[in-house]
Amino acid sequence: MSFAQLLDDLPLRKSATVRRFESLLAPKTAADFELLAQQARAVTRRYFGRTMRLFAPLYLSNECINNCRYCGFSRDNPILRVTLDVEQVVLEARHLAGQGFRQVLLVAGEHPKFVGRGYLADCVRALAPEFPSISIEVAPMETAEYAEIVNAGAEGLVVYQETYNRATYAEMHTSGPKRDFNWRLDAPERGYAAGFRRIGVGALFGLSPWQDEAVALAAHVEYLLRRCWQAQITVSVPRLRPAAGEFQPQFSISDAELAQLICALRVTFPQIGIVLSTRERASLRDVLISLGVTSMSAGSHTEPGGYTHQGADDLHLTVGGRAIAAETRTREGATATAQFEISDERTVAEVTDSLRRRGFEPVWKDWDQALAKS
Amino acid sequence: MSDKPSKLKIADREFSSRLLVGTGKFSSNEAMRDALIASGTEIVTVALRRADLSGKHDPFANILDFIDPERFLVLPNTSGARNATEAVRLARLAATAGLPKWVKLEIHPDPHYLLPDPVETLAAAEILVKEGFVVLPYINADPVLAKRLQDVGTATVMPLGSPIGSNRGIETRAQIEIIIEQATVPVVVDAGLGAPSQAAEAMEMGADAVLVNTAIAIAPDPARMAHAFRKAVEAGREAREIGLGEKSWNASATSPLTAFFSET
Asked: Is A62 contained in some domain?
């Protein structure tokens, strides 16, 4: 059975694991919440120890042909856009390497003209000698296309479904290829077939009731653990952040609910990775790291060229998906528009200091290209 | 009472300590270093994927700088490898990088339970032994696999007590007993030992050594826990060498079936 079928049957038929997970999401007394948190912490320690893996996102391009109501990169948003060339990507990456990062996540909008498979493979190939671990978060691809990226040296694939609710998905993705719900839903399995070693899934919280999203996400994780058994499955639970387009979320998930969700994921799936980005503010991140998070970003920028101002000369404003005339392009010192505002603005050193103070060893390298070579 | 406990011999080297220690999951490299010293271990295993093998001394992947090679035998492990090809490649890379030509062969294609793949492990062991590596394979507690590995020339066998990091102790007891009974190489019980008593149990069963990581690394005081494991391993070994009394199922105050014979 495909996950699409399983998802459609989910309201009627849930596995014992998913039912147990759902029960952990129910409102809890303070004492029960504390108990859950302690359990989550103990399980995380047992499987992952007192360590925290660190990674940085590296945005390659904010060109996009999709319109997604919540996303700053939406085609119709009048923003400054750029696609870094491979040399610029390497310069951005070297900056990250200088800060300690050995694991990068390459992120790009969906635009076949600017972000083609050859381009992505070239970027990965250029970074592989310097980065033991490279992941991608780009538009879903065919298995053969993914295989080219794997062969170039990438080992991780991140594809968030955004929302597992078909109606909400249709409402949020108003135009572009991203409207194809099932194509996106099956992307992790295609990536696995292509040879990715780490598969990241997630939902964007704020688009529909959080408990429903969480249950579907858990069902997806359970499904992937059975089928993609040789991949490390990781999960992310990003909450919507302010972005260009000024989308107002209809649904919310409080800090405590987010913490409960992370604990529930950890207790239900002791060995999966849980990823926490700089979308969340510093004080909250410092608490969440003890409850189940195993991997986090730090010092992030969500615009291409954000670390070293690469591509600043190539910025162009687009209106309705079209670049406008060069002479009105950009002012001095402008940067590409970010996908969303980050919330934890601490430097990398501040984040690692905080980790150490809380008894965590920051782990930069936890992979070797020698393992990835096919 | 004999003068000294016997030494552990693996390949052509002798070790006084029968406790091997892993280096993952510690809260800092300094905490790891202190725990290694307190454990009295002489063999320390390191995941190659966490180390810098390029020879550039990467300060952000410097776990090896915290393990004194004069004091400890660094035992590189192939954790992360999914098949024989990857494990062999990693082992060769480590040897090229100047690490000892010893390898803890770990091949676990399932990254969630980290259970070892018997087919790939045997294939990799065969290749690495031929290339002159001292091979210590991590295996499920499968007596036939243990024999097959001995036959291809591995230096030990390392059956798991329970899954890595589970702290569940020796759940595979019956199988490990067979492995110990049949072994021609040292048997090192690896994985799942969550308490010193479980390490002592393995030694009392006749294991030649144990490997502990999680229970030490995540303890509130890793160095003290390492020391506790050291004492447990020593106690368990000593008891084994002395010989434990047979367990009895009943109290033995009277012998109703045979009392007649002693009355005459």
From this structure: yes
Angle at B8 between CA B12 and CA B89, to 5 degrees: 55
CB of A221 within 8 A of CB of A272? yes
Output the CA angle A253-A256-A261, nearest 5 degrees. Answer: 70
* E strand or H helix that includes residue B138: strand B134-139
Write the pLDDT tens digit of every residue in B195-241: 999 999 999 999 999 999 999 999 999 999 999 999 999 999 999 98
- Domain annotation covers residue A185: yes
Over residues A108-150, the pLDDT tens digits come to 999 988 888 799 999 999 999 889 899 999 999 999 999 999 9
Q: Cα(A355)–Cα(A310) distance, rounded to whole angstroms? A: 30
Domain carrying residue A122: 3-369
* The Cα angle at residue A316 between residues A315 and A319, in degrees rounded to 5: 150
Q: State both tokens at A37.
A: 């948190």
B245: which 2 tokens?
A: 């009394």
In a domain, A374, yes or no: no
> pLDDT per residue over A266-284, tens digit each?
999 999 999 999 989 999 9
Active site residue B104: yes
CA closest to A366 among chain B residues: B50
The active-site residue, picked from B7, B9, B101, B104, is: B104
The answer to whether residues B31 and B222 touch, using CB atoms and an 8 Å cutoff, is yes
- CB crowding B21-51: b at 16 or more within 10 Å, else e: bbbbbbbbbebbbbbbebbbbbbbbbbbbbb
Provide the ipTM.
0.76
Q: Is residue A170 part of a domain?
A: yes
A-chain residues within 8 Å CB-CB of B26? 49-51, 361
Sheet holding A322-323, edge to edge: A80-81, A316-319, A322-323
Q: How far apart are CA A232 and CA A261, in angstroms?
A: 20
Q: What residue has token string 């993952």?
A: B24
Please tell me if residue B68 touches chain A, with a CB cutoff of 8 Å: no
Q: How many domains does chain A have?
A: 1
- CA R_g for chain B: 20
Q: What's chain A's length in residues? A: 374
pLDDT, mean of residues A159-170: 96
- Please report which residue ranges of chain B form alpha helices under DSSP H: 29-39, 84-96, 118-130, 143-152, 173-182, 196-205, 214-217, 222-242, 259-263
Contacts of residue B214 in chain A, CB cutoff 8 Å?
46, 49
As to burial, measured by CB atoms within 10 angstroms (0-12 exposed, 13-18 middle, 19+ buried), residue A284 is middle
CA–CA distance, A198 with A116 (Å, rounded to integer) = 22
Is B111's CB within 8 Å of A359's CB? no
CATH number of residue A188's parent domain: 3.20.20.70
**Which one, of A67, A28, A70, A42, lies nearest residue B166 by Cα?**
A42
A56 and chain B: CB distance < 8 Å anywhere? no
What's the pTM? 0.86
